[in-house]
Amino acid sequence: MAVSNAVDQFMRRVADEFESLPRQLQGIARYLEQHRSSIMLQKVNDVAVGSNVHPSAVVRFAQRFGYSGFSEMQAVFRDAFRERAEPSGSYQHRIRRVIAGRPEQLDETQIARSFIDACRVGLDELVERFDVTRFRAAVDLLEQAEQIYIVAVRRSFAIASYIAYALGHTQKRVHLVDGLGGMHREQIHSIGKGDALIAISFPPYGKETLFCARLAHQRKAKVIAISESDLGPLAAHANVLLKVEEASAFAFRALTSTICLCQALFVALAYRLELKPNEGAHTGDYDA
Amino acid sequence: MAVSNAVDQFMRRVADEFESLPRQLQGIARYLEQHRSSIMLQKVNDVAVGSNVHPSAVVRFAQRFGYSGFSEMQAVFRDAFRERAEPSGSYQHRIRRVIAGRPEQLDETQIARSFIDACRVGLDELVERFDVTRFRAAVDLLEQAEQIYIVAVRRSFAIASYIAYALGHTQKRVHLVDGLGGMHREQIHSIGKGDALIAISFPPYGKETLFCARLAHQRKAKVIAISESDLGPLAAHANVLLKVEEASAFAFRALTSTICLCQALFVALAYRLELKPNEGAHTGDYDA
DNA sequence: CAACATATGGAATAAAAATTCCATATTTCC
DNA sequence: GGAAATATGGAATTTTTATTCCATATGTTG
Questions:
Q1: Which of A45, A82, A205, B66 is the most buried (most CB within 10 A)?
Q2: What is the set of domains in chain A, with CATH numbers?
Q3: Rounded to two decimals, what is the model's pTM?
Q4: Mutant choice from B84, B105, B109, B273 vs A, greatest count of A C-beta within 10 A
């Protein structure tokens, strides 16, 4: 990092000492990092409440890093903001440069930004085309299923793996058809009536996924397909088809909308099952 | 501009009455207009000095416009800033309102929509806080690595699995540390100088991931950490830390921002390697 | 598990900031 | 030019905010 401002320097110092800090002060450090852009207009008390500590802990924190108290530490943030706010033209400049320079000199940073942009658009469309009826139907199926199988390959496998992880926190029995040892067939084999299969596949549809969907359908299991269109090969075997049109940029297809939809599906199911996980920043031991 | 914010409205009111204001109060009005963007962090005294008047004049000014005093008037500026600077704050608010406002009649459809919304906000923040330097550094490391290892557990495993899939399309040798058979240790064991490790972990950090990061670091391999903050335990072992602050809603943490960042990383790398996959909607046979 | 070091939070105190009060200055209008 | 109305700024007061003090709690070490 070329030029770091006072705040960055300070936060670095905090990061260095972080490990040796008492529990509460660590909490404050995290809070500061998280809210670095608005510390300048917070009172000690805001910081204290935000960090779940007593105001005096905040003062001690500041003193530990060489300031006379909170006020002096806060000044660092305030001044940094002021410096930044004054040459406000620079932001406008940057935007213009990016837009103007776009056609040829695409550097990887711009590529990254564009890609993220594409993902945002994808999510916008997801909301817009959100099909309430189908979504509900999908939740219904999952709610009623005794066992839930999940299958996807290649690009979509990550999604399946996430769903399996998430559903693992419910009472349902969950089977991820991961094809380990080439055993797709064997893994789906025991599916039957009363079960549900979540099959995720996009063009050019993976044959393992199609196979599983077909088998599940034959066995009278319910099939929830997540795919791109009602016309694809998955549609034939699906009881509910959730449509996702992923954005693509630079010839790469995004994955954000699909995963977002799947998470939404899971959250909805969790609420339906009255599974209320602990409120808060992280969900117990399940994250990683 | 369609909807004007509170500050604009207020300044308009001031402009209207300007002519009928006593000399000093006019001075204050000019000062406010000139410094509207930093009033939020000024004291009455700053404004008074800046306008060459007595502090009480500033209070009188505020009262003339219907506020109880300077503090109340300042709040207008502060709140306006907060709304702009922290769309995330407003997001938290919105979520809280949704939850608090209609505790019972939250149906799963609304939940799903809110969740998708949260993801969108998350992507907005991702763009906003995008750290160019670090991102480039990460691409550099990957470009130079001979072999690339990827590790993540539980919630983040899906991400790792996607990265492994994507990198599989480059010339790099890719190793997904998936812990199959409890063999995290064995899988990371052969990492060494010249290699890179991508480690993804969020609170409460998975110990397998930490172990791999530590080992990689000891072995002089480069470590790219994808995590929530510079203060977490991954930071100590990382050469580059890419920060992602996932939105969370209904006590579930989103995954969209993380996966979006990882895809962007891959796209950037692909371009760097001058790997130009076929233009078009889907990338050959690799999708599923 | 005792003795010590360290961390924590309630309450008191100090400091800073905002507001009010009021005596004086300035302007306005007849 | 003088009376009334309005504006101004010094100082006191009130309110808010920050800091310190200290008793208690918690953790650590031998």
A1: A205
A2: 6-85 (1.10.10.10), 128-272 (3.40.50.10490)
A3: 0.73
A4: B109
